[in-house]
Amino acid sequence: xxxxxxxxxxxxxxxxxxxxxxxxxxxxxxxxxxxxxxxxxxxxxxxxxxxxxxxxxxxxxxxxxxxxxxxxxxxxxxxxxxxxxxxxxxxxxxxxxxxxxxxxxxxxxxxxxxxxxxxxxxxxxxxxxxxxxxxxxxxxxxxxxxxxxxxxxxxxxxxxxxxxxxxxxxxxxxxxxxxxxxxxxxxxxxxxxxxxxxxxxxxxxxxxxxxxxxxxxxxxxxxxxxxxxxxxxxxxxxxxxxxxxxxxxxxxxxxxxxxxxxxxxxxxxxxxxxxxxxxxxxxxxxxxxxxxxxxxxxxxxxxxxxxxxxxxxxxxxxxx
Length: 320
Fold this sequence. Notes:
By secondary structure, the chain is mainly alpha-helical. A two-stranded antiparallel sheet has the order 1-2. Helix 6 packs parallel to helix 10, helix 7 packs across helix 10 and helix 13 packs antiparallel against helix 17. The mean pLDDT is about 90.
């Protein structure tokens, strides 16, 4: 009997979700409002995909798509077989992307949880406002602040470490390969933590206050409430954002690596975007740059599909 009721409920649900002309006409205003955005996406996101043809040609701007020689997988073979520099570039991009992903999630969630525990509104609003400000700074300014903070000439980091007797003399952090990825990671954390925490703070406000009151009656402290109520309450938001950001793990950045790089750390600072600029656009080899861009896009799609499948198998929130 229960099985029959379940089947009937599923049929009613399918009937409600079925798209009909009657439903389309009822929502015609919303459809008309969405048309400009649909056109925007088509023009700027899908039409440029035609340019992917360049990756399979020896593309020359003067000859165009139809006049350029078709060379098949030549440029992909060059990237992955004949060019060890690109493999190292993938390693750098992936390493910095993973570091940025882990640190940004950890610090944003932690900051939101701690800020939510601030009782007085005035200090809370002040801290929120101050934490948002670095997001609006250009990366050039951020790099300037980093160079001053890490400078060997009375830089605040070197002075602090020397005063703690952790260093005997100043260290030039920008000449050590082992420090570069972490400098980039913590620079992104400083710049984006406040901004990234906004959505978690919004998700926290949706948690039922009765849960906190019941926990207080049971004798739970702030830490226990944070771990057992707040964190599980924002778990769906965390999973959705994680799935979205996993697809961009190869978008490790361009500006900060380009501005802070030098000859001593170039082997660990070059990302795919810098490679495309240096060997694709600067040398007018658009086919090579397009092939590298296609690789990034394909990897991003695969990562999103894998992460979404894993989330579905684990019974967590997913994108589709």
